[in-house]
Amino acid sequence: MEGPLAERARAKERGDAVPVTTAPVTTAPGTTAPVTTAADETGKLPDGTVDAVVIGGGAAGLNGALMLARSRRSVVVIDGGTPRNAPAEGVHGLLGLDGTPPAELLRRGRAEVRRYGGLVVAGDVTAARPAAPSAGGDPRFAVTLAGGGTLRARRLLVATGLRDELPGIPGLDRHWGHGVVHCPYCHGWEVRDEPIGILAAGPASVHHALLFRQLTADLVYFTRGTELDEGTRERFAARGVRVVDTPVTEAVTGEDGGIAGVRLSDGQLLPRRVLAVATTLRARTEGLDGLGLPVRELPGGMGRHIAAGTAGATEVPGVWAAGNATDPMAQVGASAAAGALAGAHMNADLAAADTEAALAATRRGSTCV
């Protein structure tokens, strides 16, 4: 794997913006550590009010920005550089781009947004809040970055993604995105026929197990204190799924650096090469409190998301949300599509506002005459 210096050199050779080197991030136990990717530095922030600011430079944010830029809207993307799927080796289930490394997909996306005049800025949003509207009542927003710069925008697209929180089992974190997986559609083919263990986190884990059973005949379900009724146990037995009720105390790393198995509370080591777990899904809302966005809890204590309606419109006028921040189960393709739809609706909303402003100006001119 190339280091940051090599990546910076290759970026210069390609003529791309030089990647930003970010400081290590400390995370709480059980929280997956962010993996940074090369975000683009694109110079000075615009002084005036832009049509849209997109908070988040993943698939949803970039595709929303692409739609806006192609509609000749002034748009700025704020990219924190820590996409959820950064640890993965490739994006899967995305037609025509299956297997593309996440960092490469985002690099292409940033280049496409820039091609149409969009701006992509590396940074973190520390505050976003409504500002005084225009004289005609059109919404305005102020977005402050960690470096102190401030952007003014007519519309916002929140595409901040989410954070996966793992169970507090020692040894899990280091294997996240490789030997520890969560999605059978994102990682399933790559772990097919391996000895897989399901680390139960609640009722949804039963469904999780049935999906992974499609991928391997060697599946063990660790209940981890969750309830499992006799009917489900019978169904698991019919599919050859072994159930282990003994508590899991540790994920054990093998000599090759991968997962060797799980240690149980009785001291037994049960060999597994892959562990699947339903993470707790938390929408990233840092710096967004000032917007007053509605946040809803997911069923079964699975996490929280930003509530949004048709095409990502939120209860806050002028603010849309797209991607995993509002739809935690969406894969990359679905997130990108949601971003595109939100971007199109934002452009339509801006077009309507522009028309009303022009009409008001025309009427004022007629009155003066």
List the helices and strands and how they pair.
Elements: H1 4-14, E1 49-55, H2 59-70, E2 75-79, H3 102-115, E3 119-122, E4 125-131, E5 140-145, E6 150-158, E7 162-165, E8 180-181, H4 184-187, E9 196-199, H5 204-213, E10 219-222, H6 230-238, E11 242-244, E12 248-253, E13 259-264, E14 269-271, E15 274-277, E16 280-283, E17 295-297, E18 303-306, E19 319-321, H7 332-368
Parallel strand pairs: 1-2, 1-6, 2-3, 6-19, 8-15, 9-10, 9-15, 10-11, 16-18
Antiparallel strand pairs: 4-5, 5-6, 7-16, 12-13, 13-14, 17-18
Largest sheet: 7 strands, mixed
Topology-level CATH name of the largest domain: FAD/NAD(P)-binding domain
Mean pLDDT: 89
Label the CATH architecture of the largest domain: 3-Layer(bba) Sandwich
- Separate helix tally: 7
Which structural class do you get from the secondary structure elements? Answer: alpha/beta
Order of helices and strands: HEHEHEEEEEEHEHEHEEEEEEEEEH
The CATH superfamily label of the largest domain reads FAD/NAD(P)-binding domain
User: What share of residues is helical?
Assistant: 25-40%
Question: What is the 3D shape?
Answer: elongated
Compute the CA-based radius of gyration: 23 Å
Low-confidence stretches: 1-40
User: Strand percentage, roughly?
Assistant: 15-25%
Distance between the termini: 70 Å
Q: What's the CATH class label of the largest domain?
A: Alpha Beta
Q: Tell me how many strands there are.
A: 19
Provide the domain count.
2
